[in-house]
Design a protein that fits this description.
The chain is α+β, with helices and mostly antiparallel strands. The protein is 47% helix and 12% strand. The longest helix has 34 residues.
C-alpha cells in the first residue's frame, strides 16, 4: 500500500503502520519516501518515521534542510512577508548546536504562508522538532509577536487626519448647500474617527506563518489572543487563525481562550468555529464541553497547595509564593518569613524566577476575572455538576478552590431537588449558614445558589455569615430583587417597565459594559438599536432595546426601551423573542436587574420620544 497509485492510500498505510509501532516498516517507508514527491504524502511518511523513532537526518537534518530550502526559495514569493523580514529573523540552532541558515527559516516561512494552516501543520511541527527546544520557543514567540503587531497596528494620527481632510474637501460643496452649513473643520472632525479606526495592514494573507508559533509561551499566547479577540475580533480571518493556533497549542491557558471565544465572542462565525474546536478538544479527551471548561483552568504554576517555588541564586535557595484568599501571592524567603520581593541577582535562576512570578501574578488576575464570568453564567443557566467532579475540578484546583469559597452552593439529590446550601472554607471544611458542618458526600450534584432557591430566612442568615467571616462574594447571589414570571402578564415576551427612561448614550454604554452587554450589529449610517449579552448555556441572548445610538458612541440623549430574550441565529442575528416563561428563572431575574440598573443612569421622561437622537 505504500506504493499504491492513490495518494490517500499511501498516506493511510504509513499512518496505520506507525500507529501500531511496526518498526520493520521504517525501511520500506524510507524507500517509498525517496520516490514520492507529493507534499501531503511526503508529510505523512515523515510523520510516520518520526513516530517510529527512525533516524530523520537524511530528510530533516541540516544538509537536507538546506537543500530543500534552496529548491523552495527558487519559486517562493516572499513579498507579503517584507514587513517581517525587514526587522530580521532570530538566530537559531539545530538540536545538535549547528546554526540554522537564514534561508532555511525563509523557506519555512514561505511553506507556512503557502499552506495557510495556522493551527495544525504536521510538516512544520516536524521542522520545529529539529530546533533546540529553547530556540523553537524563541522563533515561535518572535513570529507570533511580529504578526500581531503588524496586523493590529493602528492608523497614525497624521494618516487619519490626511484622509479625513481629503474626504472633507470632496464633500465640502455639498454641505454648504445644507442649512445650517458645515465648516471644513467640522467635516474633518466628523470624518477623522472613521479613518482612525481603519487598519493600515492585514495579516490575513500571511496567517499561515502562525503554524511556526505553536511552540510560543502558552500564557503569552493566551493573554495576547484574548486581547486581540476583544479589540479586533471583527477581523474574521485573523481571529479564526488565532483560535486555530490556541486549539493547536492545546494547553489549559489556550483552551480557556477557546472556551471564552465560544461563549462571549461577538463575531458569530468565529464564535461558532471556536465552539466546534471546544467540542473536538472535549471529545478527544472523552469529556463534555462543560467538563473541558472546568478541567482546563490554568493554575498559574501553583501546586495543589497553592504554592509556587522560586529558586534563586547560584545555590538555588527556594523562595515561595503562596496564594492568599484574595488571589494575590504572598512571597516568603527560604526561612518562611514574608518578603516584598525576590533577591537581586543576575544569575539565570533568579532572572527566570522573577519572570515566573510576574507572569503568575498577571495570570491570576485573568483567571479570577474569566472564571467569575463563567461561573456567573453557570448561575444564570442553572447549570449543575456531579459532586465528585466538582470536588476534583474545583476544590482540588489551587485557584478555583479559593474562588469557590467566595460563593454559596446548593447540594442536590439525584432528581435535582435542593437538599441544603453550604460554603467551602479555607480550612477544607463545608459549612451551612449557621456554621454547622455539611457532608458533601450526601449530595449527588451541585450548583450555585441564588436568592430564588432559598427562603428569606436562609438568605438573611447567609448574608450575616459572609459579613461575620469577611468574605467578599464572587458576585451577587443574594442581594438583588427577584422577578418571577408570575409577576408578568401571561404570554409576555418582553419587559418594558423602564421604557422611556431617558439618559445619555455614553452612560448606557458604560453601564452596559460593566454588566457584560455589548452593542448589537451596526445598521445603516452606523446606528444600532440594542445591547446584547449571550448566555450560551441557555442558548439565549439577553437583548436590551434602546432608542438608538451610533458607533463610536457619542454623548447625546438616548432612551431605554425594553428587555427581551432571543435565540442566536447565523451571521450575528437574533431569532424571534421567546416567551419569558421559557427563560430560566434566574437568568430572567438577573437580566431584569441589569435592565433596571442601566435605566437608572437616567430617569423617566414623558417627552422622551421628542428628545432622542434617533
Amino acid at each position: 500500500m505504500l506504493s499504491d497509485k492513490r495518494k490517500d492510500s499511501r498516506a493511510n498505510a504509513a499512518e496505520w503502520l506507525s500507529e501500531r509501532g511496526v518498526v520493520d516498516a521504517i525501511g520500506p517507508i524510507q524507500a517509498a519516501l525517496a520516490k514520492k514527491k507529493d507534499e501531503a504524502v511526503r508529510t505523512a511518511f515523515l510523520l510516520a518515521l518520526s513516530h517510529l523513532g527512525a533516524d530523520m537526518s537524511a530528510f530533516l537534518g541540516p544538509e537536507a534542510m538546506a537543500k530543500a530550502a534552496e529548491a523552495t526559495l527558487k519559486k517562493a514569493k516572499l513579498a507579503p512577508l517584507d514587513w517581517l523580514l525587514a526587522s530580521g529573523l532570530p538566530t537559531l540552532r539545530y538540536r545538535d548546536g549547528a546554526p540554522v541558515p537564514e534561508d532555511v527559516l525563509k523557506a519555512w516561512l514561505a511553506t507556512a504562508m503557502q499552506q495557510k494552516q495556522p493551527g495544525w501543520n504536521v510538516l512544520l511541527d516536524l521542522y520545529l522538532d529539529q530546533l533546540a527546544p529553547d530556540d523553537a520557543e524563541k522563533l515561535a514567540n518572535h513570529i507570533f509577536d511580529a504578526w500581531i503587531a503588524y496586523d493590529s497596528e493602528p492608523t497614525s494620527h497624521e494618516a487619519a487626519l490626511a484622509a479625513a481632510t481629503e474626504q472633507a474637501q470632496q464633500m465640502y460643496a455639498f454641505y454648504q448647500s445644507l442649512r445650517p452649513p458645515r465648516t471644513m473643520q467640522q467635516l474633518i472632525e466628523g470624518y477623522f474617527p472613521e479613518h482612525k479606526r481603519k487598519y493600515p495592514n492585514s495579516g490575513a494573507a500571511t496567517k499561515g506563518i502562525l503554524a511556526l508559533a505553536k511552540r510560543a509561551d502558552p500564557t503569552h499566547v493566551a493573554t495576547t489572543a484574548r486581547a486581540y479577540l476583544k479589540n479586533h475580533g471583527k477581523r474574521v480571518a485573523q481571529a479564526t487563525a488565532l483560535v486555530d493556533l490556541a486549539a493547536a497549542i492545546d494547553t489549559p491557558e489556550t483552551l480557556q481562550v477557546l472556551v471564552a471565544a465560544a461563549t462571549r465572542l461577538r463575531q458569530k462565525t468565529v464564535q461558532a468555529h471556536a465552539g466546534a474546536l471546544v467540542e473536538a478538544a472535549a471529545q478527544a479527551r472523552g469529556w463534555t464541553a462543560d467538563e473541558l471548561a472546568d478541567r482546563t483552568v490554568p493554575t498559574a504554576g501553583l501546586d495543589d497547595a497553592g504554592v509556587l517555588e522560586l529558586p534563586c541564586g547560584v545555590e538555588g535557595r527556594i523562595y515561595r509564593a503562596r496564594l492568599a484568599d484574595d488571589l494575590t501571592l504572598i512571597l516568603e524567603n527560604p526561612d518562611g518569613k514574608p518578603v516584598k520581593a525576590l533577591p537581586a541577582g543576575d544569575d539565570d535562576q533568579t532572572k527566570e524566577s522573577k519572570k515566573t512570578l510576574t507572569a503568575a501574578r498577571k495570570e491570576l488576575k485573568q483567571i479570577a476575572r474569566l472564571q467569575a464570568e463563567r461561573l456567573y453564567e453557570a448561575l444564570c443557566a442553572e447549570h449543575s455538576s456531579a459532586m465528585a467532579d466538582w470536588l476534583a475540578d474545583f476544590r482540588g484546583h489551587p485557584v478555583m478552590g479559593r474562588l469557590s469559597e467566595r460563593a454559596i452552593w446548593l447540594g442536590l439529590d439525584e432528581d435535582g431537588t435542593v437538599q441544603a446550601s453550604f460554603r467551602p472554607t479555607a480550612e477544607g471544611e463545608f459549612t451551612n449558614a449557621e456554621d454547622d458542618p455539611v457532608d458533601p458526600a450526601a449530595f449527588a450534584r451541585i450548583r450555585l445558589a441564588h436568592a430564588a432557591n432559598l427562603t428569606p430566612e436562609t438568605v438573611a442568615a447567609w448574608k450575616q455569615h459572609l459579613k461575620d467571616y469577611e468574605v467578599e462574594p464572587l458576585f451577587a447571589q443574594l442581594d438583588r430583587p427577584f422577578l418571577t414570571v408570575a409577576d408578568l402578564p401571561e404570554g409576555a415576551t418582553r419587559i418594558d417597565d423602564r421604557e422611556g427612561w431617558l439618559t445619555d448614550a455614553k452612560k448606557i454604554q458604560g453601564a452596559g459594559a460593566k454588566l457584560g452587554f455589548t452593542p448589537g450589529p451596526v445598521e445603516d449610517s452606523g446606528w444600532f438599536d440594542h445591547y446584547r449579552k449571550p448566555f450560551k448555556g441557555a442558548n439565549l441572548i439577553a437583548v436590551i432595546k434602546i432608542s438608538g445610538a451610533s458607533l463610536p458612541v457619542q454623548a447625546g440623549a438616548s432612551a431605554v426601551l425594553h428587555l427581551e430574550f432571543c435565540p442566536p441565529t447565523r451571521h450575528d442575528g437574533l431569532g424571534q423573542p421567546v416567551p419569558l416563561a421559557d427563560v430560566p428563572p434566574i437568568l430572567l431575574s438577573e437580566c431584569w436587574n441589569d435592565y433596571r440598573k442601566i435605566a437608572a443612569t437616567g430617569a423617566y421622561d414623558p417627552d422622551w420620544g421628542k428628545k432622542i437622537q434617533w
